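Renewal narrative, Specific Aim 1. Our central claim is that a sequence can be written position by position from structural information alone. The example that follows is taken directly from our test logs and has not been curated for this report. It begins with the structure tokens describing the chain, in the order in which they were read.
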């Protein structure tokens, strides 16, 4: 049996779980709402997670088309030596979605989760621009996915395999053999996309893995990630967020959208409600997926809540920059020198973020040796 210490450095997201399944097999990697009423958490170990990734990969291997000249993406960056087949998902933001994406990566495919919040036109633009040939949809969004697939030539529509992880582990799992030591550093195994606006389509960005998922942070540091105790994964309400923090006494970080941060201020902050005490206990409350009002951020910080910005740049995620809040600027960012980030002056107090080379497990942007990548993200 191969030990984690015998393996080289992980070069893709799914490989991290193979490592953790061997050096921390019984450590709880994930907490997710139990399926009946979402009032309590169920726990999943790193080994259980890795076993389920293999279990899903084995099943999808029989459902997905073969990766050949007709299915591999013709939109793959030239810097990627082995163009992959692009597998997209349209589904609820839950643990099953994460497992599905990891299973696609383990099968050597490139994975993109398409947010259901996008318009149909935006989703079609993403499928076509990335030349995705597979669309996996859960039962909530299957009818919509079916209509979208009918408008896109050559797309295979697959029904998402769904189960409760803890209950599934009690069954005989299928196995999926792959080389845990293979170097996937030059692969493009994940694609994120910008949200798009009413005047522009979402922009896909090819990556080696996903720097935006909190799961990556949990797996790489050997800690844990929890999904909110929400009955509806598409609509999480404030009491469910507070109850989730209360149910996890050792939680140290909460990540959510600016809309929720603003709702917390309106509902609890203005009255300095007792619920705020659960947020004060956290080491940080990280906001991502949009820009939070400066006034709201400062009000929450004045109440003793350590609000930070989770992601500095749409293009490159969290890796090249580090949030170091000050009293004057709660979302102040400094560059990490090891990623060769530079600032190019535009005008006045505006600067564009430039990056010379991609960090490990983050980007495959096709940056030529000695070249530079323009993010088109403007900072003040």
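The sequence written for that structure reads:
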């Amino acid at each position: 049996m191969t030990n984690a210490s015998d393996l080289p450095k992980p070069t893709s997201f799914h490989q991290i779980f193979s490592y953790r399944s061997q050096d921390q097999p019984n450590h709880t990697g994930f907490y997710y709402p139990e399926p009946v009423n979402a009032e309590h958490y169920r726990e999943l170990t790193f080994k259980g997670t890795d076993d389920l990734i293999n279990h899903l990969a084995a099943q999808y291997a029989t459902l997905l088309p073969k990766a050949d000249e007709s299915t591999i993406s013709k939109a793959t960056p030239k810097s990627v030596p082995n163009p992959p087949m692009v597998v997209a998902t349209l589904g609820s933001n839950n643990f099953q979605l994460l497992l599905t994406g990891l299973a696609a990566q383990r099968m050597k495919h490139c994975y993109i989760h398409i947010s259901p919040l996008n318009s149909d036109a935006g989703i079609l633009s993403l499928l076509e621009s990335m030349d995705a040939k597979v669309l996996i949809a859960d039962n909530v969004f299957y009818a919509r996915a079916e209509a979208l697939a009918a408008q896109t030539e050559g797309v295979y529509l697959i029904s998402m395999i769904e189960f409760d992880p803890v209950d599934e582990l009690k069954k005989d799992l299928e196995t999926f053999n792959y080389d845990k030591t293979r170097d996937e550093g030059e692969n493009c195994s994940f694609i994120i996309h910008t949200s798009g606006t009413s005047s522009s389509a979402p922009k896909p960005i090819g990556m080696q893995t996903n720097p935006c998922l909190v799961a990556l942070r949990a797996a790489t540091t050997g800690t844990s990630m929890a999904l909110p105790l929400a009955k509806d994964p598409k609509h999480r309400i404030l009491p469910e967020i507070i109850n989730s923090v209360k149910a996890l006494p050792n939680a140290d970080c909460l990540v959510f959208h600016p809309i929720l941060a603003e709702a917390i201020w309106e509902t609890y902050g203005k009255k300095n409600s007792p619920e705020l005490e659960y947020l004060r206990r956290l080491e940080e409350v990280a906001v991502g997926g949009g820009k939070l009002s400066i006034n709201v951020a400062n009000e929450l910080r004045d109440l003793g809540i350590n609000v930070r910005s989770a992601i500095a740049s749409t293009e490159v995620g969290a890796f090249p920059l580090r949030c170091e809040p000050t009293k004057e600027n709660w979302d102040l960012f400094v560059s990490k020198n090891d990623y060769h980030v530079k600032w190019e002056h535009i005008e006045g107090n505006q600067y564009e973020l430039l990056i010379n080379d991609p960090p490990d497990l983050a980007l495959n942007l096709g940056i030529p040796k000695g070249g530079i990548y323009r993010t088109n993200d403007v900072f003040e």
